[in-house]
C-alpha cells in the first residue's frame, strides 16, 4: 500500500512570503553588472563632514564605544538628540526616558511596529511606502491598510477623506512619512493638523518617519507631528543620522516619544540588535551640534542637485513631479510611450546606462504605481550631469 506523504511546509515564514529580495538589491546588482550609474538606491556617493568622520576615529582610538554601549544609546547622543528636538521644534524630551538610539531608522520602524502591534491590528500607511513598512507590519502580525497619494497639480497629494475612511475600529496605528519617500511630498501643516485631529478623535497611535527632516526645499516647512495639539503623548518620531550627515553605513537612528511608548519600542529593540554603532554614536552626538550653516549648505547643495537632475529628466521626456523634500524625484514614464515601470527599470541600464527604482514595488495597488519611476539625486554633480546625458538617448529612439 502506498505511503501517504504530506506536502513539505515552506521554509520561509508565510508572513514574509510575499516580499522576497528587495528591489534595491536587485537594481544595485544590475547597476554593478552593467556598469550603469546607480540612481536607484538612496545613498550619497561622497562622505559627510570631515569633522564628523574624525570624531568617529577619535572615539575608536580613545576606546569609546568599542564594547557594548548602553542599551538605550550613549548618554551624549541621547542628550544631543533631545537638544536638537528642543532647539528646532520646541519639543522637550527627557534623554533618559524619552529617547532611544537604534540601528538606523529601519530598526526604529521595526521595533516600533513589533512593540506596539498585536496580531490583527490594522495599520494605515501612506502609499507608496518605504518597502520595510510592509514587511515590518507583516512580521508584527498586523494588517496594512494603504491610503494612496495621487498626482495632482504637479505633485503627489494626500486625500484626507480617503484617510478618514480607512480608519476602522480595528485601526491601532497611523504610519506617516514626511518628507515622503519616494514621492518627495512634504505634508503641509494643514494636512498634519487634520491627521492629528483624526488620531485624537479615534485614539490612535502614530509612528512618524521624519528621517528627511533637514531636506526640505523652496521655503517648504517641515512640521513634526508630535508638535501639534494632542500628539506629544501618542506619537513615536523616528530620526536618522544617515540621511542628514551622509554616513548611511553607520546605521544610527533614534526614536523620541513619551516614556511608555519608548519603553514599548525598547522592549522589541533589545531583541533585535540589542546595541549597535558604538563609536559612531559619539560622532553623531557631535554632528547634531554642528552650526546652522552646515544644515543650510547641505540643503542648498541637494536643492541644486535636484534641479539639475529634474531638468535632465524633463529634457529626456519624462513627466517630472515636484520634489519638496527628500533626495528623490518621481517621474511618469508614459510620455516616453511606456507604462510598465518595472519592465522599464529592468531595461534602462541597457538602454541608457542608468539604474532607477520602479515605484510600483512600494504599492499594494500595483496598478496605481505602474507608470512611476524614482531617481535619487544624492550624487556628485558630475555624476548627475553624465546621467542626464545618458538619459537623453531615450528621446533619440
Describe the protein in words:
This protein has 397 residues and is α/β, with parallel strands linked by helices. It has 15 helices and 15 strands. A seven-stranded mixed beta sheet has the order 2-10-9-8-7-3-4, sandwiched between helices. A four-stranded antiparallel beta sheet has the order 11-12-15-14. Helix 1 runs parallel beside helix 12, helix 3 runs parallel beside helix 10 and helix 4 (104-116) crosses helix 9. The longest helix has 25 residues, at 292-316.
Topology of this structure?
Blueprint: H1 23-34, E1 37-38, H2 50-62, H3 75-89, E2 99-102, H4 104-116, E3 122-127, H5 131-139, E4 143-148, E5 150-152, E6 155-157, H6 160-166, E7 171-177, H7 189-202, E8 205-209, E9 235-240, H8 241-245, E10 253-256, H9 259-269, H10 278-287, H11 292-316, E11 319-320, E12 328-332, H12 341-352, E13 354-355, E14 357-358, H13 366-369, E15 372-376, H14 381-391, H15 393-396
Parallel strand pairs: 1-13, 3-4, 3-7, 7-8, 8-9
Antiparallel strand pairs: 2-10, 5-6, 9-10, 11-12, 12-15, 14-15
Assign an overall shape. Answer: globular
Strand order of the largest sheet: 2-10-9-8-7-3-4
Radius of gyration: 21 Å
Broad structural category: alpha/beta
Helix run count: 15
Helix content: 40-55%
Ends: how far apart?
66 Å
Order of helices and strands: HEHHEHEHEEEHEHEEHEHHHEEHEEHEHH
Arithmetic mean of pLDDT: 95
Sheet with the most strands, sense and barrel status: 7 strands, mixed
The low-confidence parts are none
Tally of strands: 15
Estimate the strand proportion.
Answer: 15-25%
Amino acid at each position: 500500500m502506498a505511503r501517504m506523504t504530506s506536502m513539505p511546509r515552506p521554509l520561509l515564514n508565510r508572513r514574509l512570503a510575499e516580499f522576497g529580495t528587495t528591489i534595491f538589491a536587485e537594481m544595485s546588482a544590475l547597476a554593478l553588472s552593467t556598469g550603469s550609474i546607480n540612481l536607484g538606491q538612496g545613498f550619497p556617493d561622497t562622505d559627510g563632514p570631515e569633522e564628523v568622520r574624525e570624531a568617529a576615529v577619535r572615539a575608536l582610538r580613545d576606546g569609546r564605544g568599542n564594547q557594548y554601549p548602553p542599551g538605550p544609546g550613549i548618554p551624549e547622543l541621547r542628550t544631543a538628540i533631545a537638544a536638537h528636538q528642543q532647539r528646532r521644534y520646541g519639543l522637550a524630551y527627557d534623554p533618559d526616558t524619552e529617547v532611544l538610539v537604534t540601528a538606523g531608522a529601519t530598526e526604529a520602524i521595526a521595533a516600533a511596529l513589533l512593540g506596539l502591534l498585536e496580531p490583527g491590528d490594522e495599520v494605515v500607511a501612506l502609499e507608496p511606502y518605504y518597502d520595510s513598512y510592509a514587511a515590518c507590519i507583516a512580521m508584527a502580525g498586523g494588517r496594512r491598510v494603504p491610503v494612496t497619494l495621487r498626482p495632482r497639480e504637479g505633485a503627489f497629494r494626500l486625500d484626507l477623506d480617503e484617510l478618514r475612511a480607512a480608519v476602522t475600529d480595528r485601526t491601532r496605528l497611523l504610519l506617516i512619512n514626511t518628507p515622503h519617500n519616494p514621492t518627495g511630498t512634504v505634508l503641509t501643516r494643514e494636512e498634519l493638523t487634520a491627521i492629528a485631529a483624526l488620531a485624537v478623535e479615534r485614539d490612535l497611535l502614530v509612528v512618524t518617519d521624519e528621517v528627511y527632516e533637514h531636506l526640505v526645499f523652496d521655503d517648504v516647512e517641515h512640521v513634526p507631528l508630535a508638535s501639534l495639539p494632542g500628539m506629544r503623548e501618542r506619537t513615536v518620531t523616528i530620526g536618522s543620522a544617515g540621511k542628514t550627515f551622509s554616513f548611511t553605513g553607520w546605521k544610527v537612528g533614534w526614536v523620541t516619544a513619551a516614556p511608555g511608548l519608548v519603553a514599548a519600542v525598547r522592549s522589541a529593540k533589545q531583541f533585535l540588535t540589542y546595541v549597535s554603532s558604538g563609536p559612531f554614536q559619539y560622532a553623531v552626538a557631535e554632528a547634531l551640534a554642528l552650526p546652522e550653516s552646515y544644515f543650510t549648505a547641505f540643503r542648498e547643495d541637494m536643492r541644486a542637485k535636484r534641479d539639475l537632475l529634474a531638468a535632465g529628466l524633463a529634457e529626456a521626456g519624462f513627466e517630472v513631479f515636484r520634489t519638496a523634500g527628500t533626495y528623490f524625484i518621481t517621474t511618469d514614464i508614459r510620455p516616453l510611450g511606456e507604462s510598465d515601470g518595472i519592465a522599464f527599470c529592468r531595461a534602462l541600464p541597457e538602454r541608457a546606462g542608468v539604474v532607477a527604482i520602479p515605484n510600483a514595488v512600494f504599492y499594494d495597488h500595483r496598478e496605481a504605481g505602474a507608470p512611476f519611476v524614482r531617481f535619487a539625486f544624492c550624487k556628485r554633480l558630475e555624476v548627475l550631469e553624465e546621467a542626464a546625458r545618458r538619459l537623453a538617448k531615450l528621446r533619440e529612439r
